[in-house]
Specification:
Elements: E1 3-7, E2 14-19, E3 24-31, E4 36-41, E5 46-48, E6 51-53, E7 58-63, E8 70-72, E9 74-75, E10 78-79, E11 81-82, E12 89-94, E13 98-100, E14 109-118, E15 136-146, E16 155-159, E17 164-170, E18 176-180, E19 184-186
Parallel strand pairs: 1-3, 2-4, 3-5, 3-6, 4-7, 5-8, 6-11, 7-12, 8-13, 11-14, 12-14, 14-15, 15-16, 15-17, 16-18, 17-19
Antiparallel strand pairs: 9-10
């Protein structure tokens, strides 16, 4: 399916599986209460314009090869992927890269815990949509990222609201560049390694 929209008016989960034979455009998946899952298979990119829940977790995956990138849009007050910042989790996994479509100062991803995992092309700076585009987030409980299971791509992320609480960031041979308007600190007070 090349273009997707799903809007729940009152409450309810959204769960979509897409066996892609062309690049997909997720224009709008929204629910006021309920979790959202979008799973795409096939070696094609997915462009996310707006995925939002008022109360629930968000899971987005794109698998099937190194061309299975996820590019996320942002606009003023309209993050591409948004869950509440109290206790909801946003998890985004791509066999390819995870990038921003725009070079603006608006958040691509908002949630309490934000986890980004890219297999080829890194998080934030590499891939077809990334040159010059800042990958902006707002994570209030923990930020996790992993390219170490893939090509050790670079991770470049900017937290644009408050502090950036680090859970676990793994890039192995890749470079990690994190910026924040507030502090960059451990998500939990412990002796466990936060960077690998």
């Amino acid at each position: 399916v090349p273009s997707l929209d799903a809007d729940v008016a009152t409450a309810g989960a959204i769960d979509i599986d897409n066996l892609a034979d062309v690049a997909a455009f997720v224009n709008n998946l929204s629910t006021p209460v309920g979790s959202i899952a979008y799973d795409q298979e096939g070696n094609f990119g997915a462009t996310i314009t707006r995925v939002v829940t008022g109360n629930g977790d968000v899971t987005i995956t794109n698998t099937g090869g190194t061309g299975a990138d996820i590019a996320i849009f942002s606009d003023v007050g309209l993050p591409g992927v948004e869950a509440d910042v109290v206790d909801d989790t946003v998890s985004i996994t791509a066999s390819g890269a995870i990038t921003a479509t725009d070079g603006d100062a608006d958040a691509e991803v908002v949630g309490a815990t934000v986890t980004l995992q890219a297999g080829d092309g890194g998080v934030g700076t590499e891939g077809a949509n990334a040159p010059g585009n800042s990958f902006d987030i707002n994570a209030t409980v923990a930020f996790n990222a992993d390219t170490g299971r893939g090509d050790d791509g670079n991770i470049t992320v900017d937290d644009i609201v408050g502090d950036l609480p680090i859970g676990l960031v793994t890039a192995d041979a890749g470079t990690v560049t994190l910026t924040s308007v507030g502090a960059i600190d451990d998500a939990t007070v412990d002796e466990v390694t936060d960077f690998v």
